[in-house]
Design a protein that fits this description.
It holds the Pfam family Methyltransf_33. This protein is of the alpha/beta class. It has eleven helices and 14 strands. The protein is globular, with a radius of gyration of 20 Å. It starts with a strand and ends with a strand. The protein binds N,N-dimethyl-L-histidine.
């Protein structure tokens, strides 16, 4: 497994986490959701009745896999961005006759799991794992240059929605810079839909998303030696139609003082910590973003309700 240099910059990551908590409003980057507990809770979210994106994207992939594969290079190196357990990649490796799988994730734990699963399932295939943080520009040129095959950058699950449009543009540009003439991007993005559907997906009846959100306070406690008490905060998820995004927050249930390392931070009753934005895109809006990032030859698939969109794009 290769550790990209960005990840070794732990001190800078923690300094940014700490600084965010002292801003007004306070904020915590969603990349801190994914410790072992957070990964387990996210997997549970993906199974929830209310959380339609995973299921809807999987149905698009199932239904159109052969057609989508015809727009991708054969014998590619399949670059799975945010690979998790790798399961979303496996049917594609067969469909495009991929010769190498490169898993990329912020979590070394997920990389170990996915590399093990890939080895069992594809014994002859070249496999690599890269630990990196997508809030920095991708630098995978050296890893990809070790193998002579065009890359397919696979970015499913609408993870692109967790970046602001400006950040998404920068990330898409940095993907495009890796593609060369024959490489392709295969990306899934969540569509705009009615408020009640969106808000239920991020505030489910069982409280799994609430637990996922609150768990970040435990991560903060561990990373910054802080004493947040999850019970003293409430989960909130609201759709901001003007910004076209779900906003997840943790709202202080009372006035309280929290210790963060050697410092203290007072939270008023009702004061919120912003933990995640999840942007929703109309298909033509996302196509415009891809074009701004230097992509062309766009192909697009959606489900019947237009709830989720899948794009294949090449460097223009
Ligand atoms: C990972 N990401 C695409 C999820 C989303 O829908 O924005 C994270 C998530 N947050 C709450 N539920 C799921």
């Amino acid at each position: 497994m290769l550790a990209a240099d960005a990840l070794s910059d732990r001190a800078a990551r923690l300094a940014a986490l700490r600084a965010g908590l002292f801003e007004r409003p306070a904020r915590v980057s969603p990349k801190f959701f994914y410790d072992a507990q957070g990964c387990a809770l996210y997997s549970a979210i993906c199974e929830l009745q209310e959380y339609y994106p995973t299921r809807t994207e999987a149905a698009i992939f199932e239904r159109h896999r052969e057609e989508i594969a015809r727009h991708l290079p054969r014998g590619a190196q399949w670059v799975d961005l945010g690979c998790g357990d790798g399961a979303k990649s496996w049917p594609w490796l067969e469909a495009v006759g991929a010769r190498r799988w490169v898993g990329v994730d912020i979590s070394p734990q997920w990389l170990r799991i996915s590399l093990q699963a890939g080895t069992g399932r594809f014994p002859g295939m070249a496999l690599a794992g890269v630990a990196t943080d997508f809030t920095r520009p991708l630098r995978l040129q050296r890893v990809l240059a070790r193998f002579d095959a065009p890359p397919v950058f696979f970015y499913p699950g609408s993870s692109i929605g967790n970046f602001t449009p400006d950040e998404a543009l920068a990330l898409l540009r940095s993907m495009r810079e890796h593609l060369g003439r024959d490489g392709r991007l295969l990306i899934g993005v969540d569509g705009l839909k009615e408020r009640h559907v969106l808000e239920a997906a991020y505030d489910d009846a069982l409280g799994v998303t609430a637990a996922f959100n609150l768990n970040v306070l435990r991560v903060v406690n561990r990373e910054l030696d802080a004493d947040f008490e999850p019970r003293r905060f409430a989960h909130r998820a609201q759709f901001n139609a003007r910004e076209s995004r779900i906003e997840m927050q943790l709202v202080s249930r009372e006035t309280q003082v929290v210790r963060i390392g050697a410092a203290e931070r007072r939270f008023d009753a009702g004061e919120a910590i912003v933990t995640e934005y999840s942007y929703k895109y109309a298909a033509d809006g996302f196509a415009a973003l891809l074009r701004d990032a230097g992509f062309g030859a766009l192909q697009h698939w959606s489900d019947e309700r237009g709830w989720f969109h899948v794009f294949v794009a090449a460097a223009a």
